[in-house]
Amino acid sequence: MKKYSRLSKQERYLIENGVKANKSRRKIAELIGRPPKTVSAEISRNGGYLRYYAEKAHYKRTRSNRKGYSKIDSNKKLSAYIRNKLLQKWSPEVIAGRWNKDHPKSSISHEAIYQWIYDQDNKLYRLLPRRKKKRRFKPQRKKDAIMNRTSIHQRAEHINNRSESWALRRRSRVSTWKQVQEYSLGG
Known about the structure:
This protein is an all-alpha fold.
């Protein structure tokens, strides 16, 4: 299976030439050796058949990949909205949820808001509900928590041939909490 790679500047120029020659998206895709859906998405995302320009499309794509690029910094209305809501003691989760509901074409995630807040020099973190200077991430639990475990596929055959289930055997030993207490008290 071929690994996905982004469109290059050359491929975008080939798409632009195909669009100018009024070729179908499928023909353009065959020409550059990409799936038709990729070409279709590229054209739709960057102005459609009437306004597709390779240079503009490539700039738009590489700008969003740059380190330090922030959707919030490029949208003054969004940054003002976030500052205003932080002053009203809203959390980034609530801000993102309300913004996305009011502006469905320009969505933002709470994680992007947190990153933007912590990248600012003007100490916006003080407006957060917990006012922490740095975010601390909880360490992830190890996937192999059980040492020397045996796969279910490697268990003994006599275990697979049991007639009663584990739950039935457990119920037959102790059925109620009262019986457990009586047993432990010796009564």
